[in-house]
Amino acid sequence: MQDFHYQEQQLMAEQCRLDSIADQFGTPCYVYSLAHIRRQYQAYADALGSRGMVCYAVKANSNIAVLQQLAKLGSGFDIVSEGELERVLAAGGDAEKIVFSGVGKKPHEMRRALEVGIHCFNVESEAELDVLAQVAEEMGKTAAVSLRVNPDVDAKTHPYISTGLKENKFGIDIKRAPEVYKRAAAKPSLKVAGIDCHIGSQLTELAPFIDALDRLLQLVDKLEALGIELEHMDLGGGLGVNYQGEQPPAIAELVEAVIEKTAGRKEQLVFEPGRSIVANAGILLTRVDYLKPTEHKNFAIIDAAMNDNIRPSLYQAWQQVLPVAERHEETLEWDLVGPVCETGDFMAKQRQLALTEGDLLAVMSAGAYGFTMSSNYNSRPRAAEILVDGDTAHLVRKRETIAELLAQEQLL
Ligand SMILES: Cc1ncc(COP(=O)(O)O)c(C=O)c1O
Ligand SMILES: N[C@@H](CCCC[NH3+])C(=O)O
Question: CA–CA distance from 363 to each of 31, 233, 305, 322, 399 (Å)?
C-alpha cells in the first residue's frame, strides 16, 4: 500500500492489508484505526488533566465499538438524541459523564436522560428550559442545566457547519442569557450547573475559540455578580482536521490556550470534540467498478456513493482519494462518481490517478460524519464498519442486507 497521508499511516503500520479487508468484508466499507482514535482522545485528556472532562461528540462516529473503546479510556459523551444516549449506555459509557445538546429535545428524551442520571442538559432555548423543568418536576428529580449561549462569533467555516452566529438556530442570545439564568435559578427542579457554547465545526484557527471564550468569561463574571455560580464551562467541539493541507491548531495547543485563559477560575472545563478524534482515523474503502472515458471527462464509477459519504455532495467537501495498490502507469484526470441516480453523486472531482477497473481506492479522512450521515437512498444497504486494532480487523457493524431493509416495512 502506498503513502497514506495523515494519520491513516497507522492502518499500514498495523499491518492490516486493506485488500484483504476488502476481500473479506466487501466494498464499500469503512475502516477505522483504533490506535489513532486512542491517541487523539488521549491528547485531549492529557492536556486537560484534572481541569476537566472530554465529552466525545457521538454524532461524528457513533459505532458502538468506537464508543466502547472511548468509554474504556474514561471518555464522557456529548449526545443529541435518545438514540445516541442508548448507544452510549450500550457501549458501557458512564451516564454521569454525558452532556445532552441539541435544539429539539423531546420530553421523552429528557425523561430517559433524567432516569439514567446524565451530567447535564445543554439547554438551547427558554421554551426548552420550561419543558425540562416540568419533566424533572413530574419525576421528582433535579435536572442539571447549562445554557448554550450563542456568542455571535464568526467561526470562519462552511456556512452549513457554522453554529455560533446570531443568524444560526443554536443557543441563547448571549445578551439575554443573564435573564434566562435567573429564570433557571428560580426553578426548584433545575440546578444551574454550567455554561456552554459551540461555534461551529472544522475550525482551523484558534482565534474564534478564544473570542467565544472571552465573551463567555464576561458572562460568567456577570452571573457571579448576580449570585449565580457555575461548576463548569463547556467550550463545545469544532477543532478541524487536515483534509487538504489545512493546518488547524494541535489539540494540546487549543486545550492549553483555554486552560491559560481560565487560570485561577474554579469551574471545570468540558470539551465536546468529534471530528478531531475520529476523522483521520478512518477511510472509506471502495472499488472501481467501471471506467467511462468520454470526450469531455473521464468518469470512474466507484461502488461508494453519496448515500455512503454525503460530505462531498452536501458541503463540496474535499477528501483525498488514494489507490490502495501503487500503480506506475500514466495518470489521467478522473471524476470519481457513485452509482446513485443524482448528478450530485460524486466522491471526488478532477483527480489525477492511474486507474483500472477493479482497483481499490481509499477515501481518506472519512472517520467523522461518514457512516453516521449515510442513508439507504436508492435502497442501497449501508456499508460495513471495521475497526483495526493492531493486526486484527474486527467487523464492528455488518453490511446491511436487502432482506433486513425490506423487513422494516409493511404491505397494506
Ligand atoms: C453541540 C456540539 N458539540 C460538539 C460538536 C462536535 O463538533 P466537531 O465534530 O466539529 O468537533 C458539534 C458538531 O458540530 C455540536 O453541534
Ligand atoms: N456533518 C458536518 C459536521 C457537522 C457538525 C455537527 N454539528 C461535516 O461533515 O463536516
Answer: 10, 36, 11, 7, 18
CA-nearest residue, atom 16 of ligand 1: 198
For the segment 123-134, what is each residue's pLDDT rounded down to a tens digit?
A: 999 999 999 999
Is 404 known to sit in a ligand binding site? Answer: no
pTM (2 d.p.): 0.96
Phi then psi for 276, rounded to 5 degrees? -70, -15
C-alpha cell at 400: 446491511
The CATH number for 6-31+279-407, chosen from 2.40.37.10, 2.60.40.10, 3.90.226.10, 1.10.340.30, is 2.40.37.10
Taking the centre of ligand 2 as the mean of its atom positions, its distance from the CA of residue 183, in whole angstroms, is 32
> Does ligand 2 lie within 6 Å of residue 202's CB atom?
yes
**Distance from the alpha carbon of residue 202 to the mean position of ligand 2, in angstroms:** 8
Parallel, antiparallel, or unpaired: how do β-strands 298-302 and 384-389 relate?
unpaired
CA distances, 183 to each of 114, 148, 149 (Å): 20, 15, 15
